[in-house]
UniProtKB/TrEMBL annotation:
It comes from Pyrodinium bahamense. One of its GO terms (cellular component) is cytoplasm. Pfam families: FAD_binding_4. GO terms for biological process: steroid metabolic process. Its main location: membrane. It is a single-pass membrane protein. It is found in: Membrane. This is Delta(24)-sterol reductase. The chain crosses the membrane at residues 35-68. The keyword Membrane applies. Its EC number is 1.3.1.72.
Length: 404
């Protein structure tokens, strides 16, 4: 590959307002809910060493070893159980109908309701964390996480609205199709991408994610479940759904267009030496008929990279497919031009393992040894979001998180 301009990425501010807290072993302990018991165990061990007449250095070492051991146990547990958020899989239409009936009945209960979808929210507003937890009456939609049907002839998929894109891709890619547009993070929900807008590198050809919507089942405030589409009695509601954040009702089922795919992509990074050249390069790439994905990353006043990819059936002989995620990280590679081959799955989730480049806010998470200790089960956007939310609960009241 050809080297582009070398410069150090600008470090983001930490969620603790600059306090240098090493992410290991805090990340696994917080995620597994064992931080306070582990701290208590470390303090007890340090007190025992103190009672035995050991030096203060031994107390600190004993406490540190206790925390590290607890972190390793959490890491082993997560490796055995798998990722925190697993794909939902498939279910029958009869099972979906039963869930829809139960949700409609719950919606008819008196008083305000707040949706509970069971997956990690990708919002970044601390006040929403408290609001989610304080909500007394929850409309539980956490069971609507399955794919109902994938039609590879007519190129559409019926999927429940609280299903993640991880689920969507897991059930379609093995059949040789993928969603028209796949947002960058695994646990974004398909319903959220419709009512909250979703776009990614397929958008240069297919537009926003919701533009692939063919029909939807929507739960109204009255408790009625209706099917809406571009024609018919509820056509206006269908057109109004995108970017409404659930104001008109909650989506239960979506029928979405899919497109044919291949097992691999040929991925190219082209350096543009100014912001103007970057915009021009993106425009040129969007006009190329053979490309399946186009996006770009601005790297400052230096310019940026135009990133393009196209489906291929296999990797050329003598060439190995590149794998980003655990190691190497994807975003640091964006200062180097070149052509690479990735599996389609790795391409779609190329940003997820580092939450774009937000792992910079967690000290140590750009180091190989720390990433090795975390493992792929913890190097995921849903884990970072849960960890960040937990940190905000502590730092927010202390006034250390004003810019979050």
């Amino acid at each position: 590959s050809r080297a582009g301009p070398h410069f150090e990425p600008t470090a983001c501010s930490t969620p603790t307002g600059g306090i240098p807290v090493m992410v290991w072993p805090l990340l696994p302990l917080v995620v597994e809910g064992l931080l306070w018991p582990s701290l208590a165990a470390a303090a007890a061990f340090a007190a025992l060493l103190c009672a035995c007449g050991c030096s203060p250095a031994a107390w600190l070492l004993g406490a540190a070893v206790t925390l590290l051991a607890a972190g390793l146990l959490c890491r082993a547990r997560r490796a055995a159980l798998g990722p925190w958020t697993l794909p939902g899989g498939c279910c029958s239409r009869e099972e979906y109908a039963e869930r829809a009936k139960a949700a409609a009945l719950a919606a008819k209960q008196p008083g305000p309701l707040r949706m509970f979808k069971g997956t990690t929210s990708n919002t970044f507003r601390p006040q929403q964390i408290a609001a989610r937890e304080e909500a007394q009456n929850r409309l539980d939609l956490s069971g609507f996480v399955h794919v109902l049907e994938v039609n590879v002839e007519e190129l559409w998929c019926d999927i429940e609205a609280s299903a993640t894109f991880d689920t969507f891709v897991s059930e379609t890619l093995p059949l040789g199709v993928v969603p028209l547009v796949v947002p960058e993070l695994r646990t974004i929900t398909v319903g959220g991408a419709v009512v909250g807008i979703g776009m990614e590198s397929g958008s240069f050809r297919y537009g926003f994610f919701h533009e692939g919507l063919l029909e939807a089942d929507i739960l109204l405030a009255s408790g009625e479940v209706i099917t809406v589409g571009p024609k018919g009695e509820h056509a206006e509601l269908f057109q109004a759904i995108p970017n409404t954040l659930g104001a008109f009702g909650y989506l239960l089922r979506l029928r979405l267009r899919v497109r044919r795919s291949q097992p691999f992509v040929c991925f190219e990074k082209v350096w543009c030496k100014s912001p103007e050249a970057l915009i021009e390069g993106l425009g040129s790439a969007c006009g190329q008929e053979d490309l399946d994905f186009v996006d770009g990353v601005a790297l400052g006043e230096h310019g940026g990279m135009v990133l393009t990819a196209k489906f291929v059936s296999n990797v050329p002989e003598g060439t190995a497919a590149k794998t980003y995620g655990f190691w190497p990280q994807f975003y640091p590679s964006l200062v180097h031009e070149g052509v690479e081959y990735l599996s389609t799955l790795d391409y779609l989730w190329r940003w997820d393992a580092d939450w774009f480049w937000c792992t910079q806010i967690f000290p140590g998470l750009t180091w190989f040894i720390v990433r090795w200790l975390c493992g792929p089960e913890l190097l995921r956007s849903d884990i970072y979001k849960a960890f960040n939310d937990a940190v905000i609960k502590v730092t927010g009241p202390l006034g250390l998180n004003r810019d979050e």
